[in-house]
Amino acid sequence: MALDYGRRRIGISVSDPTRTIASPRGFVERSKTARKPTSLPEKLLQLIRETEPTAILVGIPFAMDGSAGAMATEVRAFAAALTATTGVVTLEWDERLTTARAEREIQSLELSKSKRRQKGRSDEMAATLMLSTYLRSASSHV
C-alpha cells in the first residue's frame, strides 16, 4: 500500500498479491477538525484492515536539495502514528516531483475535463506512481 499524505486528502494505492501492479484505490478526505498528522481517518484505518498490507509506503516531500522541511516532519509524525495504531510497518519514499508527474499522467488519459479535475485524482495517482516505482525497484533487487 502507498499513501500520498496531504492535509486535506490522502491518496491511496494498493498492489496486487504478487506485488507487481500498483492500482489506484481512491483517497480519504480529512475533516477540518482532524488535520493533525496524528489524527488518522477511520476510513483509512478500515481500508488497512481490509487489505492487510505487509507494509505502507508513505511519500516524504523532500525539498529539491534533499532537505526535509516542516511538511516532511509532519508526514513522518503521520507515519509513526499509523504504525503505532495499525502495527503495519511504514516505509519512507522520496516523493519529489510525484505530484507534477501525476498531473501529467492524468492529462495524458482520455478523460473528460471534469473527470481529470475530480478532487483526489492527483492524490491517488501520486500514490500509485510511488508504489509502482517502489515495486519495480524492489523486484530488481530480488
User: What is the rounded distance between the termini?
Assistant: 19 Å
Question: Structural class of the helices, strands and pairings?
Answer: alpha/beta
CATH architecture annotation name: 2-Layer Sandwich
Strand element count: 5
Instruction: Provide the β-strand percentage band.
Output: 15-25%
Uncertain regions spanning at least 5 consecutive residues = none
Description:
This protein is α/β, with parallel strands linked by helices. It has one domain: YqgF/RNase H-like domain (Nucleotidyltransferase, domain 5, 2-Layer Sandwich). The chain contains five helices and five strands, in the order E-E-E-H-E-H-E-H-H-H. It has helices spanning 42-51, 70-86, 98-108, 113-116, 121-139, and strands at residues 2-4, 9-15, 22-29, 55-60, 89-94. A five-stranded mixed β-sheet has the order 3-2-1-4-5, sandwiched between helices. Strand 2 and strand 3 (22-29) form a beta hairpin. Helix 3 (98-108) packs across helix 5. The two termini are 19 Å apart.
